[in-house]
């Protein structure tokens, strides 16, 4: 049985995700609708949300290795944006979850 994980992956210093962000965002609904991703979003360096720091997920996976394999398939990993050596992953027990709509995602 899969475990839900709180996952953070940081961007490599000096990288710019802007050019490939549309492809990354376009892949989110399929990952959510498949049940692998429970929540996902950018993390920022600043409170005004003008500088990306990386990404945060709640993922369903059997192991840390499965998490890394999932992340490797994303365009941010393929294009060298994410620093896969920076991944922080911990099993999480969610006490409450509120839905946020996104086009293409089945809540």
TrEMBL record:
Task: Give the InterPro entries listed for this entry.
Answer: Dimeric_a/b-barrel, Sec-metab_biosynth-assoc
Record's Gene3D superfamilies?
Answer: Dimeric alpha+beta barrel
Q: Domain of life of the organism in this record?
A: Eukaryota
UniProt cross-references to PANTHER family, sorted A to Z: PROTEIN YCII (PTHR33606)
Identification of the protein by name: YCII-related domain-containing protein
* Native source species: [Candida] anglica
């Amino acid at each position: 049985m899969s475990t839900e994980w709180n996952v953070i992956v940081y961007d490599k210093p000096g990288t710019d995700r802007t050019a490939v962000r549309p492809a990354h965002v376009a892949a989110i609904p399929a990952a959510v609708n498949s049940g692998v991703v429970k929540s996902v979003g950018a993390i920022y360096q600043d409170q005004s949300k003008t500088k990306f720091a990386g990404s945060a997920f709640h993922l369903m996976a059997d192991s840390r290795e499965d998490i890394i394999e999932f992340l490797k398939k994303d365009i941010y990993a393929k294009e060298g944006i994410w620093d896969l050596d920076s991944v922080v992953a911990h099993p999480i027990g969610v006490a409450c979850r509120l839905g946020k709509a996104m086009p293409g995602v089945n809540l």
